[in-house]
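testing teh design pipeline on a random one, pls ignore if ur not involved
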């Protein structure tokens, strides 16, 4: 499957704490958000990993493990998706491809949600 590390982290932040948490991570990481929309902010770290803050309204219908999830960097999203199925996991949704990244979510046998991410840049 070619897992190279963990590249994506998502944290669900409720209501009033969203703005203060956004400011906290801006200060801690020493950079502003890479992009943001109402209730969804993403930071890129020096090593290229991605931290996303999500308001509860931005959580996918399949959920994010009581508010925290992470994703694995893979060499080939399609190969990794097949490996997840072979190992007994369940794929959730389709592969999403942007100019920079391809990603998809999956569940392990315990029902926890994770992501696979492939750098396309």
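output:
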């Amino acid at each position: 499957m070619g897992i190279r590390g963990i590249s994506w982290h998502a944290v669900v932040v409720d209501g009033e704490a969203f703005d203060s948490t956004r400011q906290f991570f801006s200060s801690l990481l020493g950079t502003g958000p890479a992009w943001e929309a109402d209730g969804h902010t993403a930071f890129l770290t020096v090593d290229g990993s991605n931290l996303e803050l999500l308001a509860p309204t931005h959580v996918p219908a399949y959920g994010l493990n009581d508010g925290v999830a992470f994703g694995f960097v893979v060499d080939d999203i399609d190969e990794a998706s097949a490996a997840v199925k072979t190992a007994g996991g369940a794929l959730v949704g389709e592969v999403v491809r942007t100019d920079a990244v391809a990603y998809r979510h999956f569940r392990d046998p315990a029902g926890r949600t994770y992501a696979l991410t492939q750098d396309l840049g």
